[in-house]
């Protein structure tokens, strides 16, 4: 009935394994087991969670008997560590951590369960291709004076403006931050029910009102940030193209959008909303790869008594009255539950036949809801390439040390083809016509620079987050092996121009185009956020109007993944918020 869950970890097992938790060899379901715990998938639970995440840990710690069913052999969805090339451990999909809500660290005691984060400082490196020797580069870090000196290479005016820009964006983040940790306002409830119920619904407006008050007289300027193209906002602050292009990458990363696309400012804001070890906007690597984060969350759930199995769910089962009452596994086994929470995308949960087997037919779902889910923009520009190399890249703008050891810039997000925002727009335009970018935007990360156990001695793992690549190629051509390798070769040629010798250092590579990201990780259209983060797909309308509060049209079925508010990015907020909503309903059953 079940398969063993083979968790591939980077630098050893999380602390819960060392304290007696283990993957149960040979046990049906491959459950994370502990002495005295039940070894088999039970036929009934209070809640079943489809796909790994933090939801189960919150439900189980509240006394709700919970099982998690993960379809892959590796736990964690897109936050996994996999050994694609022997000896090299890759964060195969997601690769950096910042947006995970700080409450989750403390409430689930993730550090006690083995999570170790490696902060980066400096954090951004943009080498240039230019006719001078050596070429210039832009290095950004948390030391403001040093960062200003770097910016001053290109513009004294920009160097002086940068601290004010950081403070301005920080003010907007601080005002909006509380909105991430609660369901959106239920606008339908404001006009329904008794006077008391309406007054109670009005209380939900308080976070929005507090956000507005916090923005104060700056509200019009902040409104412009949320709605305008990021190129317009950056032009108001800066004049140097390398700085503007570097900052603009956060506004388009993962989005089929150009810096000139209206609303791209919010995507930038989304990526600076996080924090790491109390430092706002900081990003870091997870020791052992992103899979170690998933393992720590799993440990937190199992320590409370949750069951985790490697099982493919065929569908959600509903009673005659339409209420969800459990799930059906691929082999036909039924597991009953009072609640079902889906970490899968809204498209898989409600539209794809495999998951809504035994649900009322699609025609019985509200037609406007079905239409809204069908219309969600899931276009993805992303091709992720994981590379094993036998030495560190040596950039013309910052050559390697003689001993070959990592230098400060090697720990950064290294931005290539970012000499100006026009290059980002050009790359985007090519993709809109069905052609992979001829000079793609590349974010190159080398996590082994801070975590050497990810690779054999002297070798490194390189993460290439590249765009723009359309999900569907011009003329309907498939993303076959030839097309995938041709694009990867283009990316490698670009890197070679900045760091001669890179191609000769390559031992192996793993190419994940948008269709690959969808097929392997269940990301709709390959979209890393389960749907675009444009303003028309956020807050009240994520994933659809009247259903932004995690409850679905099927009573007892909840969304708890990135397709729900507030979106994706290894944030955990949707899972935590959905658990609280489901717990509230569970206590009324």
TrEMBL record:
Subcellular location: Mitochondrion matrix
Start and end residues of each Amine oxidase domain: 55-403
Cited InterPro entries: Amino_oxidase (IPR002937), FAD/NAD-bd_sf (IPR036188)
Pfam families: Amino_oxidase
Entry keyword Flavoprotein: yes
GO MF assignments: oxidoreductase activity
UniProt entry keywords in alphabetical sequence: FAD, Flavoprotein
GO cellular component terms, A-Z: mitochondrial matrix
Family that this chain belongs to: Belongs to the carotenoid/retinoid oxidoreductase family.
Subunit structure: Interacts with COX5B; this interaction may contribute to localize PYROXD2 to the inner face of the inner mitochondrial membrane.
Function statement: Probable oxidoreductase that may play a role as regulator of mitochondrial function.
Name under which the protein is recorded: Pyridine nucleotide-disulfide oxidoreductase domain-containing protein 2
Lineage, opening ranks: Eukaryota, Metazoa, Chordata, Craniata, Vertebrata
